[in-house]
Amino acid sequence: MLIARKRKIYSILSVKLHQQLTSYFLTFIYFSFVILFYYLITFVLRNPYSLLIKLWDVFSGKLLQTFEGHKGDIKSAYFSYDGCTIVSGSMDGIILIWDVLSGKQLLMLKGHSTLITGVQFSPDNSKIISYSSDKTIRLWDMLSGKQLQVFSGHLHVVWAQFSHNGSKIISYSSDKTVRIWDVSLGKQIQLLEGHTGFVFGTQLSPDGSKLVSCSEDRTIRLWGCDNCKIDDVNETNLVKCIWQGGTQRFGLSMKGSIWKNTNGLTSQQKLLVRQRNGKI
C-alpha cells in the first residue's frame, strides 16, 4: 500500500520514501485504486487557488497530464473505474469531466448553487453523483451530462457514495444523520438516526447488508441496512474517516492510529476495532 503526504509518496509496508513529486504546493492527493496505484491525481495551488489537476505516474514520478479549466478552487476529483475518465468538482459549483489520455475537457455539468464537496462515478461508469454544501446530491448521466435526479433531505452540508452495485446512494451529513436513497426511484428509502454529532464517514459491508458510520460524537456505529437498527456501538476517540480494506475488512482511521475489523461483518459478529499499538 502507498500513502501520500504533501509531495512525497511512502510505502506503508517498508516505511520508505517511494517517490517525491516536484510541482506547485499540493493541496490534495488522490490515488486511482482501480488501476493498482499506477496513477496519482493532485490538486495544485496557483494564484492562490487550486485550479489545476495533475496526473502522475506513481512509480516513475513522471507528470503525465495537466487538466486546466476550473475557475473555482477544486474540491474533489475521482477516476472512473476503467481509468479512462476523471470527474472533478470545484468551489463555484461546477463539475468537469475529463479524458485521461488527451487531457481534454469532455463535459461541464451545472446545477449546484454552491461548492461541490465531492464527486464519484457509479460502479458501471454510466452515472456520476455530486454532493454539495447546498445540501443536495445530484445524479448525472455520464455520456450526455444530463441531470437525472436531485436528492434533497439533509439539513446541512452533505457527502455521499454509491453502493457496490450502484443501485443505492448512501449519504451522511453534519446534520447527524445517514440516509440511503434508491437511485432508480430518486427517493430516500432509509433514515439512520442515532449519532449526536457530525457524521464523518460511512462504508457498506461487502454484501450490502450492514453499514458502519463514524462521528464527531466519538462513536462507531454498525447498522442493519434493512431495518435501520443499530447492531453495535463502539465508543472511541475521534474517528475522522472509514475505508474498506479488502473484501471482508474495514479500516478506520483516527488521529495517530489505524483501526481494523478482524472478523468481517456478519449479522452474528460485532464490529471489533483494534488500535495499531495493540490496545482494544
Mean pLDDT: 72
Q: What structural class do the secondary elements suggest?
A: mainly beta
Terminal-residue CA separation: 24 Å
Main β-sheet description: 4 strands, antiparallel
Give the proportion of residues in helices.
Answer: under 10%
Structural features:
single chain, 280 residues, mainly beta, Thrombin, subunit H, four-stranded antiparallel β-sheet, globular, disordered N terminus, disordered C terminus, WD40/YVTN_repeat-like_dom_sf, repeat, transmembrane helix, membrane, WD40_rpt
Describe the fold and architecture.
There is one protein chain. The protein has 280 residues and is mainly beta. Helix content is 0%, strand content 54%. The protein has no helices and 26 strands. The protein has strands spanning 2-5, 8-11, 16-20, 26-31, 39-46, 49-57, 63-68, 74-79, 85-90, 95-99, 105-109, 116-121, 127-132, 136-141, 147-152, 158-162, 168-173, 177-182, 187-193, 199-204, 210-215, 219-224, 230-235, 239-244, 250-254, 257-260. The strands form 7 sheets. The protein has a 4-stranded antiparallel β-sheet, with no helix packed on it. The chain crosses the membrane at residues 21-41. WD repeats lie at residues 67-108, 109-150, 162-191, 192-223. InterPro entries: WD40/YVTN_repeat-like_dom_sf (IPR015943), WD40_PAC1 (IPR020472), WD40_repeat_CS (IPR019775), WD40_repeat_dom_sf (IPR036322), WD40_rpt (IPR001680). Pfam families: WD40.
